[in-house]
């Protein structure tokens, strides 16, 4: 990339398991569920390696934190934020359904409405936001070490 003069990548922190090598950021427990309060160390090592290698090459990295396509249809079913896949909350507690079969453009996923004042904000949004903030804090703990990263997450939390 650098050899041909490119110096910018947009990195979406996507959670889709399309190829078999992808990881979720959260620790998977022996019972198959995730603990949203604990991390998968290999996931974060891969992220740090990516940032280190792009910095070495003076490649600018723009980080997109969540992709709405990861939170609906088939991608939502195995996702750690799905209440059936974690030990941290239920569907009732979080306001999250176990399925979102419609296209993401319909904006039915409460995961993206955890900022007070948003149209679909609810009391359950506070619980979700706690875990979102923990993820963003972890992401920033890595990315802020590098001068080649564009971070815009702070404005939401």
Task: Describe the overall structure.
The protein is α/β, with parallel strands linked by helices and 157 residues long. The chain has one domain. 28% of the residues lie in helices and 13% in strands. The protein is built from 4 helices and 5 strands. It has a 3-stranded parallel β-sheet, with helices on one face. It has a two-stranded antiparallel ribbon with strand order 2-3. A hairpin with a 5-residue loop joins strand 2 and strand 3. The longest helix is centred in the C-terminal third of the chain and has 20 residues. It is globular and about 50 Å long.
- Write down the Rg: 16 Å
Strand line-up across the major sheet: 1-4-5
Average pLDDT, rounded to a whole number, is: 91
Strand and helix order: EEEHEHHHE
Short summary:
By secondary structure, the protein is of the alpha/beta class. The protein has helices at 41-56, 73-76, 91-94, 124-143, and strands spanning 8-12, 26-28, 34-39, 60-64, 149-150.
Name its key features.
single chain, 157 residues, alpha/beta, three-stranded parallel beta sheet, two-stranded antiparallel ribbon, 5 strands, globular
Furnish the topology, listing elements before pairings.
Elements (H helix, E strand, L loop, with lengths): L7 E5 L13 E3 L5 E6 L1 H16 L3 E5 L8 H4 L14 H4 L29 H20 L5 E2 L7
Parallel strand pairs: 1-4, 4-5
Antiparallel strand pairs: 2-3
């Amino acid at each position: 990339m650098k050899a041909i003069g490119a110096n910018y990548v947009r990195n979406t922190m996507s959670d889709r398991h399309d190829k078999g090598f992808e990881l979720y950021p959260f620790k998977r427990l022996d019972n198959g569920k995730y603990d949203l309060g604990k991390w998968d160390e290999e996931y974060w090592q891969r992220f740090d390696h990516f940032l280190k290698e792009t910095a070495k090459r003076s490649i600018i990295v723009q980080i997109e934190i969540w992709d709405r396509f990861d939170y609906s249809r088939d991608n939502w079913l195995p996702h750690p934020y799905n209440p059936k896949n974690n030990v941290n909350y239920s569907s009732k507690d979080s306001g999250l359904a176990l399925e979102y079969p419609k296209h993401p453009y319909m904006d039915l996923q409460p995961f993206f409405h955890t900022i007070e004042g948003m149209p679909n904000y609810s009391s359950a949004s506070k619980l979700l936001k706690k875990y979102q903030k923990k993820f963003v804090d972890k992401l920033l703990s890595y990315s802020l070490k590098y001068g080649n990263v564009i971070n815009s997450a702070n404005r939401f939390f």
